[in-house]
Design a protein that fits this description.
This protein is of the alpha+beta class. It is about 25% helix and about 20% strand. The termini are far apart.
Length: about 750
């Protein structure tokens, strides 16, 4: 592990570039940043700490830092590129890093941190001045040139050198943070379009409060941790979220989104945040309490287990936020029976339980109205659905219930054993899913009777609309434009996504259209860290599955770029690791462990040798005094009760079924739709969620003109009080047009004029 030693800096202003770089490295990349995205934001506390370290006042910091960077620039009379000295520093650092890995010693921070902070400072100055007009590329260059005092006659040469070299400087910082395995933070610079200018803008455009808002958006829009999302899909989700009348976005984020130029930057930042979002305390949007719900939702889980040398599926439940492992809960069943038990740890920051382990009848728990009472007074509930989408969750190693299916992601489906329903799901999968899925009938493999599980399901495109009939199948309408996802392989543990180089991986490209795409690979030059591009496939027909094993032989780190024409749709970073490649800082990462005799739990846990107060057992070496123990006699047979019989195992708890007026019985769902207050989102689709069962259904955000004309030209029907939009007096004699709610324009839905019959639309 790298140790960045603290320095005793005097009060005198030390403005050399080396001192600035060391101070900023200590301030921004401390151990307290482990597992977090680190932004080089000048308004954050680390920059103020770095100013104190170098003895420069906060008001004079920009000028001092710019002067230090300016001393390293090569002006016209030198006959060299503007950033030639920084390029030499890059090559020198790469050589030192290589030697450090070979010798298993610590890797020094890259020499570009101070320069990158200055790049971000220029983006901040430009962003605050152009928040209404948009962060244009020329505006950034003007801001940076003004900060460094670049003469107008050298502007062209400066921009050429910046475009050629700046990306490698960001790459060196990312590489160093990856070497630390995220112990000093995670790289946050991300740009899908306008890469060279977009990288520094991604550091300064959105503040911490807005980034927290984006994570709340991930919950509300139903994103799942660890899944890849395309630029178009993220843009549509943010657009609907901000345009909604009930949006939780703050005023600053709404003002920035009003600028078309800034929208792409915000989407890029959101994609970077989603890539590292672990959903801790969240349930991907499904755990929130919607209007009309009495209890906070809990989610069904499914995992594979080995029982008596055979594999079977085990069902359980995952609790929502504000619930911790160890919390006592109580579930009441039929005939006054109940179960009380503590919650177990499931995944990252989540708690839950296995139905069979706590004595619940699996069939009734899946089909019934499950109510959970916690000792804290909080109530959780799960309402049954006829079709349950279970998506693979990388953080809990289980399949977790989601409101709708995600394209190009491994999923399982739990379907009520009704012949017509099972046949309809089979047709949808045959039309839109990757071949290889299989159905497991009820009563086998751990599947409860009355249900069927479809496993190994990977949706490649949206199914034909004619196949998605009825509300029970509405979950098969994914949020999908064109996107790619890594599938297969062995994902290695750690804060950074990595895969084993010995396990083949492939890329699944899913799309809602048949338009061909191009797939390119971006690699890093080992000496200069410059990005090199190679097109793997042109005019690739979608959906498609691309095997990367043969194409990328000998390449460990690369980025896949999915494009259609000149537009980049999505990028995906892939890192392959094996025992043949030495790990950075391996001498620091692998520590000696021993059993500390001073710890009461020493027989069952080990601690680092350097932290042990009384090391006693280190491998086969044993030291220390003899441990005193008390002999105990173990019974050779089970304890008997007074009647002389073994206590029988209590029968499983039966959970009550859903009420007769519920949506799963009547088929009438109560959709909670976003309201736009007269505004029109640019996204084509919005998603409504049933307030009772949590089912998700896609609705158009606007009505096509030809469809509106057909509706208005259709024969008029008598007024239907339960399904109409009418502003006429109640006692007036008239005939009005009946429209489904999904086809009612937002300007009518959001109108404040008196309406009738809207509550049951």
């Amino acid at each position: 592990m790298v140790e960045i030693a603290d320095k005793d800096v005097s009060k005198a202003a030390i403005t050399s570039y080396a001192d600035w770089n060391a101070a900023l490295a200590r301030a921004f990349f401390g151990r307290d940043k482990a597992g977090e995205l680190v932004y080089l934001d000048k308004d954050d506390d680390p920059f103020e700490q770095a100013c104190r370290d170098v003895g420069v006042g906060l008001n004079d910091a920009d000028e001092s830092l710019a002067r230090a960077v300016g001393e390293k620039l090569c002006w016209k009379q030198s006959g060299r590129a503007f950033f030639a000295d920084f390029d030499l520093m890059t090559k020198s650092w790469v050589a030192r890093r290589r030697n450090a890995i070979r010798d298993s010693i610590e890797i020094p921070p890259p020499p570009h941190i101070a320069l990158l902070v200055l790049f971000s400072s220029a983006a901040e100055r430009m962003g605050s001045a152009n928040i209404d007009t948009g962060a244009a590329e020329s505006s950034y260059y003007s801001s940076l040139e003004g900060l460094l005092g670049i003469p107008r006659e050298e502007s062209g040469r400066f921009r050429v050198s910046f475009t050629k070299s700046s990306e490698a400087y960001w790459e060196s910082l990312s590489l160093w943070l990856e070497d630390q395995d995220g112990q000093r933070g995670l790289p946050s610079a991300y740009a899908l379009m306008h890469r060279y200018v977009g990288l520094p803008i991604s550091q300064a455009l959105v503040r911490e409060r807005e980034r927290r808002n984006l994570k709340k958006m991930f919950e509300e829009q139903g994103f799942l941790p660890g899944t890849a999302v395309s630029h178009i899909d993220m843009h549509g989700a943010i657009d609907v979220w901000i345009a909604s009348a009930r949006t939780t976005a703050n005023a600053v984020l709404r003002k920035m989104w009003a600028s078309t130029e800034l929208q792409n930057r915000i989407v890029e930042i959101a994609l970077g945040e989603l890539a590292t979002w672990d959903g801790a305390g969240q349930l991907g949007g499904s755990g929130q309490t919607l209007p009309g719900q009495k209890n906070q939702r809990a989610l069904l889980t499914l995992r594979d287990a080995r029982v008596a040398l055979r594999s079977e599926m085990r069902f359980g439940l995952m609790a929502g936020p504000n619930v911790s492992p160890g919390d006592m809960c109580r579930i009441e069943g039929l005939d006054g029976a109940a179960r009380e038990f503590p919650l177990d740890l499931i995944g990252v920051g989540s708690a839950g339980f296995d139905f069979r382990a706590v004595g619940l009848d699996v069939g009734s728990a899946v089909s019934g109205d499950l109510q959970i009472h916690l000792s804290s007074g909080l109530k959780l509930g799960r309402f049954p659905k006829k079709v349950v989408i279970l998506t693979r969750d990388a953080f809990s190693a289980a399949y977790v219930e989601s409101d709708r299916i995600n394209a190009a992601v491994l999923s399982r489906l739990l379907v009520r054993d009704e012949p017509q329903l099972v046949a309809a799901v089979q047709k949808i999968l045959s039309d839109a899913a990757q071949p290889g899925f299989a159905a497991v009938p009820g009563g086998t493999g751990g599947v409860p009777r009355g249900w069927t599980v479809f496993k190994d399901v990977v949706l490649l495109r949206a199914p034909e609309p004619a196949l998605v009939t009825g509300s029970d199948l509405s979950a098969f309408q994914p949020r999908l434009s064109t996107q790619m996802t890594i599938s297969g392989g062995l994902k290695l543990p750690g804060r950074l996504p990595r895969w084993s180089a010995f396990s083949p991986i492939h890329v699944i490209i899913a799309s809602e259209t048949d338009d061909p795409v191009d797939l390119a690979i971006l690699t890093r030059n080992a000496e200069t860290l410059q990005t090199e591009e190679t097109v793997i496939s042109r005019g690739l027909s979608v959906p498609a599955v691309v095997n990367l094993t043969d194409i990328l032989e000998g390449v460990d780190d690369f980025t896949l770029s999915l494009r259609r024409g000149k537009t980049t749709l999505q990028t995906l970073a892939v890192k392959l690791r094996s025992s043949w490649v030495p790990s950075p800082d391996c001498s620091q990462r692998f520590r000696s462990l021993c059993h500390d005799l001073g710890d009461p739990l020493w027989p069952i846990q080990a601690v680092p040798s350097e932290d042990a107060a009384t090391p006693g057992v280190d491998g086969i070496a044993v030291s220390g005094a003899v441990v005193r123990y008390t002999p105990r006699k173990v019974a050779s047979r089970p304890d008997w009760n007074s009647q002389g019989r073994v206590d029988p195992k209590s029968p499983p708890l039966l959970v009550a079924g859903p009420p007769a007026d519920s949506c799963i019985v009547t088929g009438r769902h109560r959709w909670n739709l976003p309201l736009f207050d007269g505004k029109w989102p640019k996204s084509r689709w919005m998603y409504g969620v049933c307030t009772q069962c949590g089912m998700s259904k896609r609705h158009p955000t606007r009505i096509p003109k030809d469809q509106t004309s057909r509706d208005l030209a259709a024969p008029r029907k008598n007024c239907a009080p339960r399904r109409r939009v009418c502003h006429c007096p109640v006692d007036s004699a008239h005939r009005c047009t009946v429209l489904p709610r999904s086809r009612i324009p937002p300007r009518i839905l959001n109108s404040r004029a008196p309406t009738r019959g809207l509550s049951n639309l």
